[in-house]
Amino acid sequence: MTGPGQDAPPPPSDPQPPAPRQPVFNAMPPAILALSALIIAAHTLDWWSASYGDGAFHQALVNLAGVRTGEMAERMGTGPLGGLAPAFAHVFLHFGWVHMLLNLGVVLAFGSAAARPFGTDLRGAAGFFLFFFACAGAGAGLHMLFHMDQSTVMAGASTAAMGLWAAGGWAEGGRRGMLRLSVPLLGLHIVMVLIDPWLNLPIAWTGHIGGLLTGMIAYPAFVRVFGVRRG
Questions:
Q1: CA-closest candidate to residue 65, choices 37, 94, 38
Q2: DSSP assignment of the chain, as one string?
Q3: I need a labelling partner for 82 at 20 to 30 A (CA). Which of 16, 28, 40, 121 fits?
Q4: CB count, 10 Å around CB of 194?
Q5: How far apart are CA 69 and CA 61, in angstroms?
Q6: Neighbour-count burial for 1-33, b at 16+ CB within 10 Å, e otherwise
Q7: Using one digit for the tens of pLDDT, what is the confidence trace for 60-106?
Q8: What's the confidence (pLDDT) of residue 231?
Q9: Average of per-residue pLDDT values in the chain
C-alpha cells in the first residue's frame, strides 16, 4: 500500500521468456561427436562379428588394437607396425558393452569441455585428436612397461579418457581445477597398482595412470599450439 502523496511503485516488468533449451548434442564439439560415433561403431561391428558373423572383423580388430604383453605377445605377436598400431588403436576395442559405455561416458562428460578450447575448425579437431591419442599412447606404453613379463591383453578407451578427465579440469578451472579433479584420481590409481597383485582386478590401472599424467602435463601445450587464436 502507498500513503497520500507517495508515488505508486512501477508495475512489475514482464518476465523474460526462458531461453529455449538447446539439444544436448548441439553443445558437443564436432570432434567429440565424431570420436563417440567411431567408438560406438567399432564396438557394434565387433559385437556383431563375434556374436552373429564369422568372427573375421572381431579377429582383425583384436589383432590391430589389442595391446599384448608377455606370453600373449609371444603367442599373438605384438601387432601391426611392431606394436605401434595397438598402442593407439586400442581405444576402439572393448570387452563388452558395459566396458564401452563406461568409457564413452567419461569421453562425453570430460571430452566435451576439453575439446572446446580447440575450436570447431579442422586444425582444432586435429589438435584435439592428437592430444587424445597421445594420452592413449602414453597409457599403452606405461602398461607395457609394467607388465612386460606378464601375459595381458589391454584394450579400451580408458587410457585416453583419463587424459580427458584431467583436460576437462584444465578447461573448466585452470591448474587448480585440474588438480582438484586429477590428484584424488591419481592417488586412488597408485593405491590400486600397489594392491592389485592381491585383488587381480581386470583393470589396466597403469594404463589409466599414463593417460591421466599425460593429460595433467601436456594439455596446456596442445591448446597453446592448436587452440582457438584470441586477439
A1: 94
A2: ---TTPPPPPPPPPPPPPPPPPPGGGGS-HHHHHHHHHHHHHHHHHHHHHHTS-SHHHHHHHHHH-EEEHHHHHHH-S-GGGGHHHHHHGGG--SSHHHHHHHHHHHHHHHHHHHGGG-SSHHHHHHHHHHHHHHHHHHHHHHHHHTTTS-EEE-STHHHHHHHHHHHHHHHHHHHHHHHHHHHHHHHHHHHHHHHHHH--S--HHHHHHHHHHHHHHHHHHHHHHS----
A3: 40
A4: 10
A5: 17
A6: eeeeeeeeeeeeeeeeeeeeeeeeeeebbebbe
A7: 999 999 999 999 999 999 999 999 999 999 999 999 999 999 999 99
A8: 53
A9: 90
In residues, how long is the chain? 231
What is the value of pTM for the model shown? 0.87
Q: pLDDT under 70 in the chain at which residues? A: 1-26, 230-231
- Of 123, 102, 129, 115, the C-alpha closest to 27 is 115
In this structure, whether the domain defined by 28-226 belongs to CATH 3.20.20.80 is answered with no
- What integer pLDDT is reported at residue 25 of this predicted model? 42
**Residue holding cell 580408458?**
158
Cα 7 from Cα 27, distance rounded (Å)? 47
Closest CA to 161 of 218, 94, 109: 109
